Amino acid sequence: MKSKRIALVLAFVAVAAVIAALIYGYARLSREQAADAQGDAPIVAPSKVEREGGGGTGVQLDLPTQKLIGLETTNLAAATLPPEVRGYGRVLDPAPLAGLVGDLASARVAWAASSKEFQRVTALFHQGENASAKTLEAAEAAMQRDQVALHLAETRLVSEWGGGVVGEPDLPAFVQSLAARQSALVRLELPAGETAPATPAGARLVPPGNGALIEARFLGRATTTDPQVQGEGFLFLVTNAPAALTPGLALTGFLRLPGEPAHGVIVPEDAVVRSEERAWIYVQTDATKFVRREIALTRPAATGWFVTNGVAPAERVVVTGAQTLLSEERKAQIKVGD
User: Fold this and answer.
1) Is the same domain home to 101 and 166?
2) How high is the pLDDT of residue 37?
3) What sign has the CA pseudo-torsion 208, 81, 54, 316?
4) In which domain, by residue range, is 157 found?
5) Which of residues 225, 256, 287 is at a domain's end?
6) Nearest to residue 168, comparing CAs of 220, 91, 131, 232?
């Protein structure tokens, strides 16, 4: 009987131990699961990005952080630009023009020589000296032939290059400057269907890459139509052109037109950040707040871009650190675990 009681006690103790172990294991497992769940939860950090009422985005950045990243701002300068229309074209090869100018010079020399010979023979004939009527007729025919050749050379030059080019004061020197790349001829075409409402006063040329804008003088309308573009063509002259303006180089140009200028600001190139195939700037609205605004990069300027809306003169924009502000926005949009 006594041995049965001992066996029951031992059995009870064993069962109690098993139950205690199960309770301990369950409690530990629960704590581990809770810890894992807490570890998997997103880490919520105080955001520095705020949505503006007008749809823009504002970034708060305290002064020590601004100093740490080297953030710099500048005031936007007011500016005006005359009316312009965009065109596309290329630097022309001066060789065809040089050939026609050479033909014209040769025709002039030949006509001058035959004219002088005709005058000499005419004088001898009327003085009764050694000059027959047949000789006189031959001299006159040679002079007339050379005169016709001169007229054809002049007509061809005007028809292919226009009066603006032919009207240069010293045409041979003009061609020589083109050949030596001291100047360059540029042809700009308007897109098909577009027309210039007035005669251009000049143009601003945008070379490939990040080269500075180049001022060009208007010479005249092109006398032919580009078979591919099918738009209006205009000829311009660039003096003291850099050697990079080689024949065949493609250019974008802005044809300057008469009329009231547009008013805007010059946005520095360093202030522009590009994202989502659009251009943005950060405007400082107070000591620690910077608002991102979209701008249109349609009219380049000497030091950046001419912008007519979205910003105003004297507003401050970020010129160093704008990319860092954009990165701060992007970080705020990223969720831990994505």
Assistant:
1) yes
2) 47
3) positive
4) 95-174
5) 256
6) 220
Q: How far apart are CA 185 and CA 191, in angstroms?
A: 20
d(CA 259, CA 112): 47
- Residue 56, number of CB atoms within 10 A of its CB: 16
Ranges of residues in the chain whose predicted pLDDT is under 50: 2, 9, 13, 15, 18, 34-47, 53-54, 335-338
Q: Is residue 7 part of a domain?
A: no
Shared domain for 139 and 74, answered yes or no, is no
Using CB atoms within 10 Å of the CB of residue 129, give its burial: 0 to 12 exposed, 13 to 18 middle, 19+ buried. Answer: exposed
Per the CB < 8 A criterion, the answer to whether 85 and 190 are in contact is yes
Cα-to-chain-centroid distance, residue 98: 31
CA–CA separation, 52 and 48 (whole Å): 13
To the nearest 10 degrees (0 to 180), the angle between helices 133-166 and 95-126 is: 150
- How many whole angstroms separate alpha carbon 99 and alpha carbon 160? 12
Residue whose tokens read 């001066």: 94
Beta bridge partners of 91: 186
CA distance 154 to 103: 9
